[in-house]
UniProtKB/TrEMBL annotation, chain A:
UniProt similarity note: Belongs to the amino acid-polyamine-organocation (APC) superfamily. Spore germination protein (SGP) (TC 2.A.3.9) family.
Domain of life: Bacteria
Membrane topology value: Multi-pass membrane protein
GO biological process, one term: spore germination
Source organism (scientific name): Acididesulfobacillus acetoxydans
Subcellular location: Membrane
Database matches in PANTHER family: SPORE GERMINATION PROTEIN A2
Protein name per the record: Spore germination GerAB
Residue spans crossing the bilayer: 12-32, 38-61, 82-100, 120-136, 143-163, 175-203, 215-239, 269-291, 303-322, 334-357
TrEMBL record, chain B:
Sequence intervals crossing the membrane: 294-313, 333-351, 381-402, 414-439
Pfam family, one: GerA
Entry protein name: Bacillus/Clostridium Ger spore germination protein
Taxonomic superkingdom: Bacteria
Keyword field: Membrane, Transmembrane, Transmembrane helix
GO biological process per UniProt: spore germination
Any single GO CC term annotated in Swiss-Prot or TrEMBL for this entry: membrane
UniProt entry tagged with the keyword rRNA processing: no
Signal peptide as annotated in the record: none
Family label: Belongs to the GerABKA family.
Keyword hit for Metal-binding: no
Automatic annotation (TrEMBL), chain C:
Domain Spore germination GerAC-like C-terminal: 223-384
Keywords annotated in UniProt: Germination, Lipoprotein, Membrane, Palmitate, Signal
Pfam families in the record: Spore_GerAC, Spore_GerAC_N
GO terms (BP aspect): spore germination
Domain Spore germination protein N-terminal residue range list: 28-193
Membrane topology: Lipid-anchor
Annotated Gene Ontology cellular component terms: membrane
Major place of residence: membrane
UniProt similarity note: Belongs to the GerABKC lipoprotein family.
Organism in which the protein naturally occurs: Acididesulfobacillus acetoxydans
Name of this protein: Germination protein, Ger(X)C
InterPro entries, per database record: GerAC_N, Spore_GerAC-like, Spore_GerAC-like_C, Spore_GerAC_C_sf
Compartments where found: Membrane
Length: 366, 490, 394
């Protein structure tokens, strides 16, 4: 794809479900387990911290928006360290890819295809994401625009359905188990909100007129944070933390128990499959930019030739690196967040901030 | 002159040499007639024409008398121009080279050769029998104009011209087909069409290398530059009002001699759902009907696959009593649902194809025999469940609710593909398949305009003609235009 | 095949082929399924007995078209399969081996739970169903009062062919509320942990003439649960009062004597209201305020013509008193049993955190001592199409 071909709205449309599709499935379990009644406060806290992180990310990408990731770090840090940082970012992209494939597939397998081998389900997702990566970001972003409204609608629908028998008192006294718990519960949602950092991969493809200072990223963070909070509130008012923490995919359970009347059966399945489509967009996104950057670093000319081996490799990794859904739960809730926040989502952009300021000052001087 | 001598490219002043050459070229073409004459100034000349495609009345009553009265001699200077002034039926252009002259001759013109003139005058005497303008068969409407294009190019262009009395309506003529030399017209409205788009259409048209162009369908893949997609990337229509509407949107129309179908481009997915009826009826009716068509398209593509996914993989999505009926209907059916669906889909397509090829008088009869008798017999024999007949009938009827044949013929491919996906992974497989199809469609473009524009490209302002049929005062005030969202590559 | 090389078509074909190579795993043809409509769970000795009421739908429809006469000699339209095992899973495994069909539980309507099992604790036995991929959360949990779940699955009558579907019809027709598995789990995890489930018993309608005495399920919301264990039953009157408070009056017909005198004439009313509102009072001590606002219409008023505002007000007051008495009795019994079935604990927790933190450990005792203040406000709305008793003559 030629750079500069995505409009601002399309990028917003891409990033919102990108952040949300994983944030709503397994992640709510973490604040529910840690912060209990304060899960929604954890989520709000994560949103505010996420806005803070977004500030650094905006700074990072608004400097020389036409630069690709590795190029950017090479200019900032020098050739060697820059390449390594770029590689770290790329590897994290693949790490997310592996986690997300597994998460989406487990959702499908647990909730409605229990007899189907997991590898077939992951293969389906991987193939679609490979196809998306092959067609390029332009096609994926258009596809996303067509799917996104339904994705968004499912949130609203679930929330409205939860309003039929809401237990608002479940939200009261969020600090009952202590502020520490609320903060601890905020990490997992924050880290998946912080995935917004992938904008550094995407920014060169944003159309030049809109690259300036991408303030819309704040809007994306806020929007995603609010929807995530809405999602947790939906879980809390319909399940309470007591029951909510038992489920691997709590929101799935909300859908199940709310839509199980004779006339409105099985809407949960529809909603889940819609989310699988959202996940497919995200996977295409990750695979495309990850491979793109690998090609850039190792000077591979033909990125498309890497899609098949790359996709297969990551699919196999997603199957073999985690044994059970419990392990996946542990990784996505408690391991990946700290790993990600400790490096590419949090620490690196923050550390790069003074460097960027220095460059900006220098450019301003010239 | 020996047979092996290189063929002369240019017309010589000597009538004898020219005739010799022509005889050589037209050997075996028994329909060509050589008719000698002498002008009033006693210059020998020759008329060459085909008896098949020439208006001989015109020839004998207008052309020949005028030639007999011709009193000029070549010595008196500017002879060809002077002749043309005397002979009003002659076109502006004369030929000095043979290749063009021969094409004109084959096209029905009469070549006038005069001794001492190194040019030939083509008299426009072409007359080919064509059928008259008839009602549109493939895109009928209840209200609105009924006329359709015919095979002849010039009457078609005349209809367009008559409906758009505006010098901004430009019609460019060109010949395509290395052997057939078919006339092709590119019509557009200057001021509405984007110049870059126009240049691109011209570029693609001139790049077409085909031995012959018999139908506008020959050109679509060249114009779309993408043969490997089941989606139609160029819209074809036989309705003049659609062509006018398209030109007002800033699209170009390509008409081909011998084809009653004009090509409209660029085309988006949504164009195939627009029928002229929408614009002739009230805003509400137009909008609702359009949504029904979208629904019909989705049903036609997805209903068999969804039926399969729901009954075999996700029975918990169906109400209990419905499940009972479905299950009871399937009692005694010996084959799995997927096989049942595939049998019925294939049978359906065979019926459709058979009914199409049969003479019009018995086509519907076969359709009824196929659908009713065979279906009923299959159900009572217990091979097919009645529910399946309902599902497939609904699918087939939905297919016919899609207003354009281009889309109608491709939606079947998707229904097969989705059934296969569903049969393996149920609803999940269905959605994977649908995602792949949708991703593919999103990657398409028609002359640089994304296939799902303006929806997938988020140009809100233009949504008024996609999701609703905006009221006329709204459409009239800001006519929707195809913005050439051109991509870097072409 | 040169035109395929390096082109977009290739991955599409690959994608299709890779997906289509294997067979289908989770799919089952409808006609290969045994649709489970009801599940009975009983304790037999040390083992659990799982009874499944399954329907072959194709057979069900074909018998439905030929109406059976008096029944009896005919085979029931469903089949019961039962197995015993140390766990539900084991019993299910035995059934699966025995039945040549795929046992499909997505449309299970009801769990009938034997009383002995209910007293022991039902959670271990519902675990399997709560985890199931099929959404069985919507299935009702019904306690077989004084009997076994299996018995209830065999009840047939002419009106409803399958007991479990008949149950569904009754529920739909009479707006009875039966807690589902999901609601059971939800209440189990609430602060109070106590709840009332519906109990059922198969009874013959003794007042009907012989030969017409259909076997029916008598549903009553009266099984008191503490956690997942059955503690006891409310009596009929209390069960009724509980349903009124919990779900509101839903066109409930209700008759009461106009005065406390013995032999006083009876007045019939039809009541409707929203569920009662519970309020925690803390001035100065913890207490509960229960407020019921209901509308009623008079359906039978044989003795007293309602022809003056004063008469209406008197009737309203009389109804208020009658209902208050019923509710006070209910609360007295519930408090004696220490069963906080209205989940007042949650209210205390939400509105008076400090008090809750203090009394959390000994909530049942606190609950038993809680003063209850019941306010009933009945409002007369209409008296049917006639404004007075038709026999009334001045």
């Amino acid at each position: 794809m030629q750079p500069g071909k995505l409009s601002k709205r399309q990028v917003m449309g891409l990033l919102l479900p990108f952040v949300l599709s994983t944030d709503v499935l397994m992640i709510p379990g973490a604040p529910l387990e840690l912060a209990r009644r304060g899960a929604w406060l954890s989520s709000l806290l994560a949103t505010f911290l996420g806005v803070g992180l977004t500030f650094f990310i905006v700074k990072l990408v608004s400097w020389q928006p036409r630069l690709r990731v590795t190029e950017r770090f090479r200019r900032l840090l020098g050739r060697g360290p820059g390449t390594i940082t770029g590689l770290v970012f790329t590897l994290f992209i693949f790490f997310s890819y592996i986690l997300v494939i597994r998460e989406g597939s487990e959702l499908v397998r647990i909730s409605f295809l229990p007899d189907t081998p997991l590898d077939v389900i992951t293969a389906g997702l991987t193939l679609v994401s490979m196809y998306g990566a092959l067609l390029g970001m332009e096609a994926v972003s258009r596809f996303n625009i067509l799917v996104f409204p339904f994705f968004l609608l499912s949130f609203i629908l679930l929330f409205l359905a939860a309003l039929s028998h809401p237990e608002w008192t479940n939200l009261w006294h969020p600090l009952q188990s202590g502020i520490g718990c609320v903060i601890a519960g905020a990490f997992a949602p924050l880290s998946w909100l912080g995935e917004l950092v992938v904008i550094v991969f995407l920014i060169p493809d944003l159309s030049p007129g809109e690259q300036g200072t991408p303030f819309f990223l704040f809007f994306v963070t806020l929007g995603a944070g609010c929807l995530m909070t809405l999602n947790i509130v939906t879980i809390q008012i319909s399940l309470g933390w007591g029951l909510g923490q038992f489920y691997t995919f709590p929101i799935l359970q909300v859908g199940r128990s709310l839509f199980s009347r004779e006339s409105l059966r099985g809407l949960d399945v529809l909603i889940m499959t819609l989310w699988v489509m959202g996940v497919a967009t995200k996977l295409s996104f990750l695979l495309y930019y990850g491979l793109h950057e690998i090609c850039h670093i190792f000077r591979v000319r033909n990125m498309k030739s890497l899609i098949l081996p790359g996709g297969l490799l990551f699919q196999v990794l997603s199957l073999t690196s985690m044994d059970s859904v419990k392990e996946l739960e542990y990784v996505t809730r408690y391991l990946a967040p700290f790993l990600a926040l400790g490096t590419y989502e949090g620490i690196i952009p923050i550390l790069l901030f003074p460097l960027i300021l220095r460059y900006l000052k220098k450019e301003g001087g010239v | 002159m020996s047979q092996t001598a290189p063929l002369p490219k240019a017309i010589t002043p000597s009538l004898e040499e020219n005739l010799l050459y022509l005889h050589q070229m037209l050997q075996g073409c028994d329909d060509f007639v050589f008719r000698p004459f002498r002008t009033a100034a006693d210059i020998p000349g020759m008329l060459v024409y085909s008896i098949l495609s020439t208006d001989q009345n015109f020839l004998s009553q207008t052309v020949l008398p005028a030639l007999y009265r011709l009193e000029m001699r070549p010595e008196r200077g500017f002879f060809p121009e002077a002749i043309r002034d005397r002979l009003p039926f002659l076109p502006e252009k004369t030929f000095t080279g043979w290749p063009d002259a021969l094409v004109a001759l084959s096209g029905g013109s009469t070549l006038i050769l005069l001794d001492g003139v190194a040019e030939t005058f083509p008299a426009a005497t072409a007359q080919v029998e064509h059928r008259g303008i008839e009602r549109s068969e493939t895109e009928p409407v209840i209200r609105g104009p009924q006329e359709a294009f015919t095979e002849a190019l010039s009457p078609n262009l005349a209809i367009i011209r008559a409906r758009m009395k505006n010098p901004d309506l430009k019609i460019n003529l060109l010949k395509l087909g290395e052997k057939s030399h078919t006339d092709v017209a590119l019509a557009y409205l200057e001021g509405e069409i984007q110049p870059a788009l126009l240049a691109e259409i011209r570029k693609r048209l001139s790049g077409i290398k085909l031995p012959s162009v018999q139908e506008s369908g020959f050109l679509t893949e060249f114009l779309a530059r993408n043969s490997y997609t089941p989606f139609p990337l160029v819209q074809s229509t036989e309705r003049p009002d659609k062509v006018i509407a398209a030109m007002l949107e800033g699209r170009g129309a390509v008409l081909v001699e011998g084809s009653p179908f004009a090509l409209l481009l660029p085309t988006t997915f949504w164009h195939f759902f627009q029928s002229p009826d929408d614009y002739f009826q009230s805003f509400f009716v137009g909008t609702i009907i359009r949504w029904i068509r979208y629904l019909a398209y989705i049903l036609a593509a997805a209903l068999p696959a969804l039926y399969l996914a729901f009954t075999v993989f996700q029975p918990d999505m169906l109400p209990l009593r419905f499940l009972f009926s479905l299950s009871a209907a399937r009692e005694n059916v010996p084959v799995p649902t997927v096989v049942e669906i595939l049998i019925m889909l294939i049978a359906l397509d065979i019926f459709r194809e058979a009914a199409l090829r049969l003479p019009r008088s018995i086509g519907p009869a076969i359709g009824i025999v196929g659908a009713l008798v065979l279906g009923e017999a299959a159900v009572s024999a217990g091979i097919i469940s009645p529910i399946m007949v309902i599902v497939l009938a609904l699918t087939a009827i939905s297919t016919f609710a899609i207003p354009t044949e281009d889309l109608r013929s491709t939606v079947r491919i998707f229904s097969y593909a989705l059934v296969l996906f569903s049969s393996v992974l149920g609803l999940y497989g269905f959605l994977l398949g649908a995602s792949a199809i949708l991703l593919h469609a999103c990657s398409l473009d028609s002359l640089g305009v994304p296939y799902f524009a303006p929806v997938a490209t988020l140009h809100w302002r233009e949504w008024q003609d996609v999701f609703v049929r905006a009221p006329w005062p709204v459409i009239g005030s800001k006519q929707q235009k195809i913005k050439a969202q051109r991509r870097g590559r072409h | 095949m040169r035109f395929l090389r390096g082109h977009r078509v290739l991955p599409v074909i690959l994608l299709c082929v890779l997906l289509l190579i294997p067979g289908c795993w989770s799919g089952h043809e409808l006609t290969d399924q045994l649709i489970v409509l009801g599940v009975g769970l009983d304790k037999v000795g040390d083992q659990v007995r799982l009874t499944i009421q399954g329907i072959r739908p194709e057979a069900a429809i074909s018998t439905a078209s030929s109406p059976s006469g008096s029944g009896g000699s005919e085979q029931p339209p469903f089949s019961l399969v039962a197995a015993k095992g140390d766990s539900v899973q084991e019993a299910l495994q035995k059934i699966t081996r025995r039945v040549p069909r795929f046992i499909y539980g997505g449309h299970n309507q009801v769990f009938f739970i034997g009383e002995s099992l209910a007293r022991e604790g039902i959670m271990p036995y519902l675990d399997l169903f709560a985890r199931s991929q099929w959404s069985q959360e919507a299935a009702w949990v019904v306690i077989a009062r004084g009997g076994t779940g299996q018995e209830l699955l065999t009840t047939t009558n002419l009106v409803a062919k399958y007991p479990s579907m008949g149950l569904a019809e009754t529920v739909r027709a009479h707006q009875v509320d039966i807690p589902t598995l999901f609601q059971f789990l939800l209440h189990y995890h609430e602060d109070s942990g106590a709840q009332i489930l519906v109990s059922a018993a198969a009874v013959k309608n003794q007042t009907a003439p012989p030969g017409y005495q259909m076997e029916q399920l008598r549903l009553q919301p009266n099984a008191i649960f503490q956690g997942d264990k059955l503690k006891g039953y409310l009596d009929d009157s209390d069960g009724e009062a509980y349903a009124w408070l919990k779900y509101g009056f839903q066109g409930t017909r209700f008759s009461f004597p106009v005065s406390a005198l013995p032999g006083a004439p009876v007045l019939g009313v039809s009541l409707s209201s929203a569920p009662a509102e519970f309020r925690i009072l803390s001035t100065p001590d913890l207490g509960v305020g229960v407020e019921v606002n209901c509308n009623f219409s008079v359906t039978e008023d044989i003795p007293s013509p309602l022809n003056s505002p004063a008469a209406i007000r008197a009737l309203e007051n009389r109804l208020d008193q009658t209902l208050s008495q019923r509710f006070s009795l209910l609360f007295a019994h519930l408090q004696a049993d220490q069963a906080d079935v209205f989940n007042l604990a949650e209210k205390v927790h939400a509105y008076h955190l400090a008090l809750w933190e203090k009394d959390k450990g000994r909530w049942p005792e606190v609950y038993a001592q809680l003063p209850v203040e019941i306010t009933v406000n009945c409002h007369f709305r209409h008296s049917g199409v006639m404004s007075k008793y038709p026999g009334f003559k001045e």
